[in-house]
Amino acid sequence: MSETPEVRPPVVTPARVVIGLCLVAPFVAMLWVGSYAKTDPAFIGIPFFYWYQMLWVLISTALTMLAYQLWQRDQRTRKGTDGGAAK
């Protein structure tokens, strides 16, 4: 009757928190319209309102790629600690 309890890795890890922040940041930046609803400073003649949004397209791409890489690493680590058990 001395069975040892099964040890599972924690569900919330620092890597998963960073993944969540990477995916939420573009939404927050774009939904907070008051922060970029202006024309100055212009960049090569393009009002701030437009180039700020286009910059976030590139930032969102980079953050999504980072989140994906972190997720892949997290899954590899979990498979190593689970002993190969599929989840």
Shape: elongated
- Poorly predicted regions are none
User: What number is the mean pLDDT?
Assistant: 86
Q: Counting H and I runs of at least 4 residues, what is the number of helices?
A: 2
Content-based structural category: mainly alpha
Number of strands: 0
Please give the alpha-carbon distance between the first and last residues. Answer: 27 Å
Could you please describe the fold and organization of this structure?
It contains 2 helices and no strands. The chain has helices spanning 14-31, 48-82. The mean pLDDT is 86. Helix 1 runs antiparallel to helix 2. The protein has 87 residues and is mainly α. The chain starts with 13 loop residues before the first helix and ends in a 5-residue tail after the last helix. Helix content is 61%, strand content 0%.
Question: What's a concise summary of this model?
Answer:
With 87 residues, this protein is mainly α. Helices cover 61% and strands 0% of the residues.
Q: Main attributes?
A:
87 residues, mainly alpha, 2 helices, 61% helix
Question: How does the SSE layout of this entry go?
Answer:
Elements: H1 14-31, H2 48-82
Helix pairs in contact: 1-2
